[in-house]
């Protein structure tokens, strides 16, 4: 196991513990302790799973990262950025024209979900294309 892998596992474990702490203690200074705990636990668990997956592939002799994967990630990131710029520009225009009092938390959560889904979709699409 490499130093990078150990560091990622430690960070994943710490994120998971922070999420569990939010769930147990529900600090009064947080707006939504359930959402915060879910985000931290989810990020920690995903980081741990991906790190173990990469370790398993490396032990089997499978190449985890190569130039093709980096190129695919660049293309997927670029398309996702274009979509987000259009969505955020439309949202800013909508909020500027209307006098709506929309809370930021649901909008940011929606944009985060759109970012993750669009990046994953473009990554897999470009992976099949290239």
Automatic annotation (TrEMBL):
The chain crosses the membrane at residues 7-25, 31-52, 81-99, 105-126. InterPro entries: DUF2178_TM. It comes from the Archaea. Keywords: Membrane, Transmembrane, Transmembrane helix. This is DUF2178 domain-containing protein.
């Amino acid at each position: 196991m490499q130093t990078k892998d150990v560091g990622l596992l430690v960070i994943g474990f710490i994120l998971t513990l922070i999420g569990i702490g939010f769930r147990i203690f529900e600090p009064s200074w947080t707006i939504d302790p359930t959402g915060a705990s879910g985000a931290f636990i989810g990020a920690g668990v995903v980081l741990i799973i991906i790190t173990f997956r990469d370790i398993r592939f490396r032990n089997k002799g499978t190449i985890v990262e190569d130039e093709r994967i980096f190129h695919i990630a660049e293309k997927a990131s670029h398309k996702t950025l274009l979509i987000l710029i259009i969505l955020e520009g439309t949202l800013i225009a909508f909020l500027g024209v209307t006098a709506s009092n929309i809370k930021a938390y649901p909008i940011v959560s929606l944009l985060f979900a759109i970012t993750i889904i669009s990046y994953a979709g473009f990554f897999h699409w470009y992976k099949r294309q290239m």
